[in-house]
Specification:
There is one protein chain. The radius of gyration is 15 Å and the shape is globular. The longest helix has 12 residues. By secondary structure, the protein is an alpha/beta fold. Helix content is about 20%, strand content about 30%. It folds into 2 domains: about 50 residues, 2,3-Dihydroxybiphenyl 1,2-Dioxygenase, domain 1, CATH 3.10.180; about 55 residues, 2,3-Dihydroxybiphenyl 1,2-Dioxygenase, domain 1 (Roll). The protein is built from 2 helices and 8 strands; from the N terminus they run E-H-E-E-E-E-H-E-E-E. Strand 3 and strand 4 form a beta hairpin.
């Protein structure tokens, strides 16, 4: 039995807008788009991807699942994402080596520091 991880589903009030924001933030490509769904991947044939699916219910609390990213330069990447429309958020993390940000719909994600050798 084989099992392949294909995508992470992200509920969104506006799938196309949020999906396009993430496509630009990550430099990924759009592989599917409709009124209710917007799927992006690192490359058309590369998985896993992110699939933004319409959910008319507003986000109510801290996300139970979030994405972590490890950039080459944390400070530069945080600045780039903030300029792209991300916001800093406090989810009770205190002083840490990572930075917690949220996308335009409030979904939290972390920009990690340098990997320890």
């Amino acid at each position: 039995m084989g099992l392949e991880w294909e995508q992470v589903i992200v509920h969104a009030a506006d799938p196309a807008s949020l999906g396009q924001w993430w496509a630009e933030a990550l430099g990924w490509v759009v592989v599917y788009s409709s009124d209710d769904e917007y799927e992006i991947r690192p490359a058309p044939d590369r998985m896993p991807g992110l699939d933004f699916v319409r959910l008319d219910e507003a986000k109510k609390s801290k996300s139970r699942l979030h994405l972590d990213f490890r950039p080459d330069d944390q400070e530069a990447e945080v600045a780039r994402l903030l300029a792209h429309g991300a916001q800093r958020v406090d989810i009770g993390q205190g002083e840490q080596s990572w930075v917690v940000l949220a996308d335009p719909e409030g979904n939290e994600f972390c920009v990690l520091g340098q990997r320890s050798q």
